[in-house]
Amino acid sequence: MTGPGLRPTAVLFACGMNSVRSPMAEGLMQKLFPGRIYVRSAGVRQGKVDPFVDAVMAEIGVDMGKHRPKTFEDLDESGFDLIVTLAPEAHHKALEMTRTDAMDVEYWPTMDPTLATGSREQILNEYRTVRDQLMMRIKKRFDWSPSAAD
After folding, report:
1. What is the 3-state secondary structure of the chain?
2. Kindly report the CA angle at 63 between 129 and 24, in degrees rounded to 5?
3. Does residue 1 have a pLDDT over 50?
4. To the nearest whole number, what is the mean pLDDT of the chain?
């Protein structure tokens, strides 16, 4: 299912409010593996759309306009092979969920850029840092290569 050299077919990214980190990861995954890995995102609590996410994702050609924050309870689907959690509270929630389901859970500690202060540009730089770290982590974990695009 998700062992070495095997890519999961369905991945859920999860964070606190499904406003920043998990939607970024979902958007990146869709960009890197279009139509090849089913991907969704969710949060522990209901969040709201974050305009900084829209801005930094647009810089790399990812349109976040259709993203609507949702909680684990809002998900219409189940059967994910892997849940990647990006915040401690999401990790605890995922572990609770997977007590009865055969899913792998991985915790990727990820900085919360909403805590950034300063000018608009300084705040955007924090969001870019998170985006770029997620991009590198996704590429490495899911063994992405430019030739992988079919």
Report:
1. CCCCCCCCCEEEEEECCCCCHHHHHHHHHHHHCCCCCEEEEEECCCCCCCHHHHHHHHCCCCCCCCCCCCEHHHCCCCCCCEEEECCHHHHHHHHHHCCCCCCEEEECCCCCHHHCCCCHHHHHHHHHHHHHHHHHHHHHHCCCCHHHCC
2. 35
3. no
4. 91
Judge whether 3 lies within some domain: no
Question: pLDDT-based confidence at 42, cuts 50/70/90?
Answer: very high
What is the residue type of 86? L
Q: Is residue 36 part of a domain?
A: yes
Range of the domain at 111: 10-141
Q: Is the overall model pTM greater than 0.85, yes or no?
A: yes
Tokens matching residue 76: 């219409």
CATH, residue 30: 3.40.50.2300
Residue 10, beta-bridge partner list:
38
